């Protein structure tokens, strides 16, 4: 996909987060058929958001810590991921299922696949 933000074109690859201001003028051109986008919008001055793509390896687990005052969202981008909290068994996620978690604490991911780690932090 080619995303044009305020007149500047950007080639955006699959599973590549791209941040831009909500006030920006945007347009896009699809180069290889349909796509599915996931957007995170926060109110300026009240919260910030970060998105990171994380590969979850089949061997072992991946822990995602969540600080006090932070919201962690884990969105399964593939099948084969289970998410559990400190005191619970892992729950299997289907593709595009999303689990919210309020810090402090951590989530543990098991399986073999890919997730989007979305962190929303309140402004101080």
Report on the architecture of this protein.
It is a single chain. With 124 residues, the protein is mainly beta. The protein folds into two domains: 1-37, no CATH class; 47-122, Sandwich (Jelly Rolls), CATH 2.60.120. 0% of the residues lie in helices and 51% in strands. The protein contains no helices and eleven strands. It has strands at 2-5, 8-11, 26-29, 47-56, 62-66, 70-76, 81-84, 91-93, 98-102, 105-111, 113-122. The strands form three sheets. The protein has a four-stranded antiparallel sheet with strand order 4-11-6-9, with no helix packed on it. The chain has a four-stranded antiparallel sheet with strand order 5-10-7-8, with no helix packed on it. The chain has a three-stranded antiparallel sheet with strand order 2-1-3, with no helix packed on it. Strand 1 and strand 2 form a beta hairpin. It is flat. The mean pLDDT is 93.
List keywords for this structure.
single chain; 124 residues; mainly beta; Jelly Rolls; 2 domains; four-stranded antiparallel β-sheet; 51% strand; flat
């Amino acid at each position: 996909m080619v995303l044009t933000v305020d007149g500047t074109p950007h080639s955006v690859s699959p599973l590549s987060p791209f941040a831009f201001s909500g006030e920006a003028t945007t347009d896009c051109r699809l180069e290889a058929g349909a796509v599915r986008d996931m957007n995170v919008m926060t109110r300026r001055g009240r919260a910030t958001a970060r998105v990171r793509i994380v590969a979850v390896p089949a061997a072992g687990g991946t822990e995602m810590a969540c600080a006090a005052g932070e919201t962690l969202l884990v969105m399964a981008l593939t099948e084969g991921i289970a998410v559990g909290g400190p005191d619970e068994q892992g729950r299997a996620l289907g593709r595009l299922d999303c689990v919210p978690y309020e810090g402090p604490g951590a989530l543990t991911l098991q399986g073999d696949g890919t997730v989007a780690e979305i962190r929303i932090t309140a402004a101080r």
